[in-house]
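#struct-help
A.M.: can someone run this one for me? Single chain, 185 residues.
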Amino acid sequence: MTEQSPPAGAGVEGDQFPHDSTALTTWLTTLVRNREYGILAELRRARVPTNAHIRAGWYGGDGHRDLFERMAFLFAIYHQGRSTPLYGHGSLGAAARRIGDGTGRGPDNPGAQRLVDRIVASRRVPWRHLQHTVTRLRSCEQPPPSWTGLTEDLIRWNDRKARVAYQWSVEFHTPAGAPGKRRTR
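D.P.: on it. Structure tokens below:
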């Protein structure tokens, strides 16, 4: 009997399929661009697993299927009725700075402040609050966070070294134009 080596490009274990958040974003934006409204509607059905959810989960690899399915749900919520896809920019903290109205945005808006406080205080990924954030950004006609960046941040949510929640809080409270902004994915 001979030993077989893992296929080229395979992970250390050989049988683990890696995640690809950029490919997920590309697929989702293509759905909007091609006006695949039926598939986007399927993705908005959070409690009913559909073929569209399963396909979104493929991009999550072996370890992040559920997270990628939920990200597809958030994307579909934001893009409901849109004919032009938005890739988004910045982190969720930077995007939450854009939530508000004429009386104030970001830290000057009590609703946005409460929402961010709930998100960053969560030990587990705060899906319900993330959905509320995406819905608020949509209703305020503000661009979403980077979908690829948000996916990567949520993968690292419990990584103490990454400090995702802390970084989001810092970006939410950092005044516009201040030096030292973290990133602009």
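A.M.: thanks! The beta strands are 100-101, 104-105.
D.P.: also worth noting: The two ends are 49 Å apart (CA to CA).
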